[in-house]
Specification:
Distance between the termini: 21 Å
Number of strands: 16
Shape: globular
Number of helices: 13
Largest sheet: 8 strands, mixed
Helix content: 25-40%
Structural class: alpha/beta
């Protein structure tokens, strides 16, 4: 039996603890020093111990991360940016898998345990991006759990063949059905949403829809989605990503929509970008689950991003004026328990009898970790250290087939 005790760690909501681990399971969490430790052990020095972070929204299939710097090209609306991205994606397709693997490794080193990855499914790329993401998911099994969203960025109703491609994507292993601005991208609110919900119902899958609309168009989308969630019995299985329009609603409309979102258990994802953002505190006070994801990292949409969930939590806290310790703890929840709830993760968290998956962070509490994210993290999966940045040890994480021709990294 493999056994060890992590001594003198600090939980998010408490004092120092010892965490006893045996055979990839947390056997016991007890006050530090409350019982003599026998067998192998390690002193964590009072550092914060958290469950693995959950990145609720990312686009690894289009990142420039790990490749040559690509200058940002200013664009117009969503459609113009989509067309620009298609051209740049085609020009760089030969390194797409290598870049995705590089970003995934970095995410794991920062402590990410679960990732929801949106993958473009459109007439140009077909299923090639999905196939790369399926290879990544297999390669990182045991290090990073990946939920794949089949994302129709070019539309469904107005894009020939996409409906069939989405069906095939779900058959091949995608987990979640995506959607995008039904009114403006497809010009057919009902047609787009009917296709998304019917596909999800056939495959017993969740739904995650990008929404960027404002004003009356946004209100119409929120209401139409909530109606379908109720009709299909999908409470708790639907997320709305971005939902910028929530940040500009009047008090009456916001109260109505927030109540509907809470009733249908529709989660809202925000990454705290420029411009209007969903008001995190107001939504939470109405009972709406809010979570976060890194979204675009160094791609044709956005030149920023590191893949660090704590940096993301700080960004969202900054944009929403979350300043007190309880508010910063809420920001941490956007990339831990709240994100886990949105993604339907049943076994997330630190508890006796749970999996020995955790992240050790060089901070004394949640507020400090969010306000000043320390770069040094130690990541444990299934009772084994997979990355130890605090020791400046290079992690031995999966590499793409392109990269395996290079010298192998040093083992931990």
């Amino acid at each position: 039996m493999s056994q060890t005790t992590l001594r003198n760690g600090r939980l998010r909501d408490g004092g120092p603890v010892d965490i006893e681990i045996a055979d990839a399971v947390i056997r016991e969490i007890r006050p530090a020093g409350s019982r003599p430790v026998t067998g192998p052990s390690e002193d964590l020095g009072g550092r914060l111990v958290l469950p693995p972070f959950v990145n609720g929204h990312a686009h690894l299939d289009k990142t420039f991360f790990g490749g040559d710097w690509q200058p940002h090209v200013p664009g117009g609306g969503i459609r113009e940016r989509i067309e620009d991205e298609k051209a740049r994606r085609a020009a760089l397709v030969h390194t797409a898998e290598e870049r995705a693997f590089a970003l995934a490794r970095t995410m794991v080193e920062f402590g990410t345990g679960t990732l929801r990855a949106h993958v473009d499914i459109d007439p140009d790329v077909g299923l090639a991006g999905l196939e790369r993401m399926l290879r990544l998911r297999q390669a990182f099994a045991g290090h990073l759990d990946v939920q794949i969203v089949a994302f129709p960025q070019s539309g469904i109703v107005s894009a020939p063949g996409v409906a069939d491609l989405l069906e095939e994507a779900m058959r091949l292993g995608a987990d979640v059905v995506g959607g995008l601005d039904p009114g403006s991208i497809d010009g057919d609110l009902d047609g787009h949403l009917d296709a998304v919900f019917a596909l999800a119902a056939r495959h017993d899958a969740g739904i995650d829809i990008h929404l960027h609309e404002d004003g009356p168009a946004a209100l119409a989308e929120y209401r139409a989605i909530a109606d379908r969630v109720a009709a299909y019995g999908m409470r708790g299985s639907v997320a709305l990503s971005h939902a910028y329009g929530l940040g500009r609603l009047g008090e009456r409309d916001f109260g109505e929509i927030a109540g509907v979102l809470a009733e249908q258990r529709i989660s809202i994802m925000t990454n705290g970008p420029t411009g209007p953002v969903p008001p995190v505190l107001a939504l939470v006070r109405h009972g709406v689950n809010v979570f976060s994801g890194t979204d675009n990292i160094r791609d044709s949409w956005w030149p920023f991003g590191s893949g660090d969930p704590l940096d993301l939590a700080r960004t969202v806290a900054h944009r929403n004026s979350l300043l007190t310790d309880p508010e910063l703890d809420l920001a941490l929840g956007l990339v831990t328990d709240r994100a886990a709830a949105a993604l339907g993760l049943p076994d997330h968290g630190l508890r006796a009898g749970g999996p020995a998956d955790l992240v050790v962070v060089g901070a004394r509490g949640a507020a400090e970790a969010v306000a000043d994210p320390p770069p040094a993290r130690d990541v444990l999966r299934a009772g084994r250290w997979v990355s130890r940045r605090s020791l400046s040890t290079r992690s031995d994480l999966p590499r793409s087939s392109v990269e395996t021709s290079a010298p192998s990294p040093q083992h931990i």
